[in-house]
Design brief:
Elements lengths: L2 E12 L2 E13 L4 E6 L5 H8 L7 E6 L2 E2 L5 H11 E4 L11 H6 L8 H14 L15 H15 L3 E5 L7 H13 L5 E5 L12 E6 L2 E7 L19 H18 L1 H29 L4 E3 L8 E6 L8 H9 L3 E3 L6 E6 L9 E6 L11 E7 L6 H9 L7 E7 L5 E5 L1 H12 L3 E5 L2 E5 L1 E4 L7 E5 L10 E4 L6 E9 L8 E4 L1 H8 L8 E5 L3 H8 L6 E5 L3 E3 L3 H34 L3 H9 L4 H32 L10 H26 L4 H7 L3
Parallel strand pairs: 3-8, 3-9, 6-7, 7-8, 15-18, 16-17, 21-25, 22-24
Antiparallel strand pairs: 1-2, 1-4, 4-5, 9-10, 11-28, 12-26, 12-27, 13-26, 14-15, 16-18, 19-20, 19-23, 22-25, 23-24
Helix pairs in contact: 4-5, 5-6, 7-16, 8-14, 8-16, 8-17, 14-17, 15-18, 16-17
């Protein structure tokens, strides 16, 4: 005996109101039977069908399958029972309307690994039910009869020994009803077909047995025709899918769901992109001010192969650098470390987009311009200010006569690379561009310095000065803060520049701007790579020590910075969690379009675990476009004039993408959690789409 029900009872509890579904139902069913179950509305017909199909539980009695009790079954065992033994045809069709007819049937063929074979079997079954021409139509485009045929083909595809049909003709006209009844009879060989119906006229010509229910109990059980014996091996099923197959099926289902609802996919992908852009802006705008580095390089620009050399005595004597360089085998040298990297402030003037800080650097293995040349490396977003930035150095009279420009998407600032001769001859002059000046109680900026005629030692003229009545007043310049000068005249103007120009006599000018006029505390050696530089440090003469300019040292207050960073990262993670909850609240209603689909999957024997994994995979596919779109948005931001945003860094990119992946999978987790434990019967009855 295939199926035996002994004193089965089902009680529903709705808001503490108990309702009897069925009671004391005892029936036996076997293969090759075509059973009609009749009764008035509320008699318990659908309840009985749901118990047999494991879409609902029973509280009393025992259900035997192949002679074995089922009352002890766990949720996973009921899933296996449903997967291997039950095919269901619903009154409301429960076709997945976003999928094509072929895809609907393929859902019941996941046991077949080969995709081509799966499609071949599905097409054969559709041909059997007369739907060859509709294979590519979506479920939403079918008529009622076509939907019911699709569901029958899907039930056949599952190849279960038991086919349950709940009012299969309830929504069909007479012609379609007769065809469906005949079709069910045609597929009933070596199977048990149980049909619940209000109108038995369509099925009576094919039935072998009639069961009537009244008030939840069996009132009549009549044999119309003795069924033929089942063929040997009938009812036996293939072995259940293994873990590897389950993963494949989850991936297939996830891809199928991803493709089937393009509007939902586009909506969620767009929401993720907005989230990604928000995180990108937050990290770019606030990251540098809120996330403090625990370590910093000795130089702001860590030049590979650059060694900073110090003397234990405090200064490096003139001529000693050649001895050091020879001993270490350096390719290039620079006597004064302070000239190897320094910053020039460029205020916003005229039509400039913004103010800049230009870092002047000597990096001979990267750029080695001639004495009168320089290389300006700048962000693409600052392109409009290229001419203004170049003019700052070309008009200052500091020996720079031409500037080549290179633009970068990843540049986090503006850099001017200078050659050796430019720095040794004019480095101090270049460093003095836009330097500070203090006149009495006022602070100002000096654009540049030049030699003036007729000035005595200690006197200066101020060109383009806005000060009134400052003659003979003392002025101190940041470039030479240990000496005060007296203003002889401040009425002069210049057409070459709008900035303040300071004129000195030749002797004072030479004292301030001639290299070698002041002691050097540190010098620089340059090598092709850090590895060679490290080896060279070991060869330095006694009394000298060297460190790579890219060496990391802890910043002042590193412990406080670490604590602040941890708090900031925790705040960002908390923000991502809150955002995930918000996205979950927003999209959980939208994602419930899959609620009915997942219930249908369970009736097809697709386990809850596979469905859950498929949603995680589907959400991962929804997430994938942001992997490309975020860099594209970052690229656009980097080239917008005046944006001051560099192309997204690797660390920020990884952090944002991981945050997005967490958010979208959190949505999937929330949905899977919300449907856990739901009754298939209740979900399908609500018909949520």
């Amino acid at each position: 005996m295939l199926l035996k029900l002994q004193n089965i009872g089902k009680i529903y509890d709705s808001n503490n109101i108990l309702t009897i579904g069925v009671r004391n139902v005892s029936l036996q069913f076997d293969l090759n039977e075509f059973v009609i179950i009749e009764g008035e509305s509320g008699a318990g017909k659908s309840t009985l069908l749901n118990i047999i199909g494991a879409n609902d539980t029973y509280e009393e009695g025992e259900l035997y399958f192949n002679g074995a009790e089922t009352s002890h079954y766990s949720a996973s065992e009921w899933e296996r029972y449903r997967e291997r033994n039950i095919s269901t045809v619903f009154q409301d069709f429960n076709i997945i309307e976003s999928l094509t007819v072929l895809e609907n049937v393929e859902l019941a063929l996941f046991r077949i690994d080969d995709v081509k074979e799966r499609k071949r079997v599905a097409r054969e079954l559709l041909a059997k039910v007369g739907l060859t021409a509709q294979t590519k139509q979506r479920g939403s485009e079918l008529s009622g009869g076509e939907k019911q045929r699709t569901v029958i083909a899907r039930a056949l595809a599952k190849n279960s020994p038991i086919i349950l049909a709940d009012e299969p003709t309830g929504n069909l006209d007479v012609k379609n009803s007769e065809e469906i009844a005949k079709l069910l009879k045609d597929v009933s060989k070596d199977k048990l077909v149980v049909v619940v119906t209000h109108n038995a006229a369509f099925f009576t010509p094919y039935a072998t047995r009639r069961v009537k229910l009244y008030d939840g109990k069996v009132s009549e059980d009549t044999t119309i025709e003795k069924p033929a014996p089942a063929a040997a091996g009938a009812g036996e099923r293939e072995a259940p899918a293994d873990k590897k197959r389950d993963l494949k099926n989850a991936a297939r289902l996830g891809i199928l769901n991803y493709k089937s609802r393009p509007r939902f996919t586009a909506m969620v992908s767009f929401a993720l992109l907005i989230c990604a852009v928000t995180l990108f802006i937050v990290l770019d705008v606030f990251g540098q001010s809120l996330i403090k580095p625990l370590k910093t390089t000795l130089d702001k620009v860590g030049i590979a192969g650059k060694v900073i050399v110090s003397n234990a005595g405090g200064t490096i004597a003139e001529g000693a650098l050649n001895e050091i360089s020879s001993a270490a085998g350096a390719g290039y040298t620079l006597a004064d470390r302070e000239l190897s990297e320094f910053e020039i402030a460029v205020p916003k003037t005229g039509g400039m987009l913004r103010a800049y800080t230009v870092t002047c650097v000597y990096a001979p293995y990267r750029y080695a311009p001639e004495a009168s040349e320089a290389v300006l490396v700048m962000p693409v977003s600052a392109s409009r200010d290229e001419a203004a930035l170049k003019s700052v150095f070309l008009n200052a009279g500091v020996g720079v006569e031409s500037v080549k420009t290179e633009k970068s998407l990843t540049a986090d600032g503006v850099y001017l690379y200078l050659g050796y001769d430019a720095l040794t001859d004019n480095g101090i002059k270049i460093r003095a561009i836009n330097s500070a000046m203090r006149l009495g109680e006022d602070d100002a900026t000096v654009y540049t310095f030049e030699i003036g005629e007729g000035l005595e030692a200690g006197q200066v003229n101020l060109i383009n000065s806005n000060y009134w009545d400052v003659k003979n007043k003392a002025v101190v310049f940041g470039v030479n803060a240990d000496k005060a000068y007296s203003v002889r005249d401040n009425n002069g103007t210049s057409d070459k520049t709008g900035g303040v120009v300071v004129q000195m006599n030749a002797e004072d000018y030479a004292a301030v701007f001639t290299a070698g006029a002041r002691p050097v505390n540190q010098s620089c050696l340059y090598f092709p790579s850090d590895a060679e530089a490290r080896a060279a440090i070991e060869k330095l003469p006694d009394g000298y020590i060297g460190m790579l300019s890219a060496s990391k040292i802890y910043v002042s207050g590193a412990g406080d910075a670490f604590t602040a960073n941890v708090l900031w990262y925790l705040a960002m993670i908390a923000g991502c969690i809150c955002f995930a909850v918000l996205i979950n609240v927003i999209f959980i209603r939208s994602i419930r379009i899959y609620n009915t689909d997942f219930a249908v999957y369970r009736t097809l024997g697709i386990s809850r675990k596979i469905s859950a994994r498929s949603l995680y995979m589907q959400m991962a596919l929804v997430f994938l476009p942001t992997l490309v779109l975020l860099p594209v948005v970052s690229l656009i931001a980097a080239v917008i004039p005046g944006s001051a945003m560099a192309f997204i860094g690797g660390g920020s990119y990884v952090f944002i993408e991981l945050a997005l992946l967490f958010i979208i999978e959190f949505v999937a987790f929330g949905f899977n959690k919300s449907i856990r434990g739901q009754s298939v019967r209740k979900v399908l009855r609500r018909g949520l789409k």
